[in-house]
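Each field is set out underneath.
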Amino acid sequence: MPKVFGFCKLSTRTRITLISLMALVIIISSVVYVQAYHSKQPVYEVQTDKKIVALTFDISWGNKTPMPVIEILKENNVRCTFFLSGPWVKEYPDIVNRIKSDGHEIGSHGYRHVNLSNYSKTEIMEEIMKAHKNIKEVAGVNAKLIRTPNGDYNDQVIEAVHEVKYEAIQWSTDSLDWMNPGVDTIIERVGKKVHPGDIILMHASDTCKQTTEALPTVIKNLKAQGYELVTVSELLKERPAQ
């Protein structure tokens, strides 16, 4: 009886292996395609040999977590960048002005917490400028940095951001505090992933219930590793000249 090498005649284990390899090739190809397609990129980090990092906080909900975070930063003589949602700014102006008076940088986290890539360029610019208006009215600050809601973007989003004279800021280390994975997990993750020029993502919304407990040790460990904590704008000054 002749041997048959067709796919159906292969052993179950061999078929599974081949299917897995094909799926892996498809996934890798898709990632490469997406990266190539979205040619316009936000800032994830700054290439530098200096041991400087930017600690950042997003806030969209609540008033219980922000103040403890602000107090911890003050106790540790740390200035950072806060990305604030437009409606939240109007709801809690006292906290916004405390952030400003403590010397922190204020950026935008957009208006509605929606994926901007689902909207037209005109709608994206309207979302950004509505939040800009709130920040200006409450804090007297012309914000120029934005972290898009959910970190979502495509080429059109980045184009819209640039057209309203903003710069899009992502992160290169995610603390995962938004997942409430455990205080030790947050601390360990930041400590292991941090690197020169890093932008570290944390949150001060009330939904993040472990941030305040983890933050003192996160800061202590960063300083112990010799890192200076700066605002995002200060970090951006270290970018090589174009």
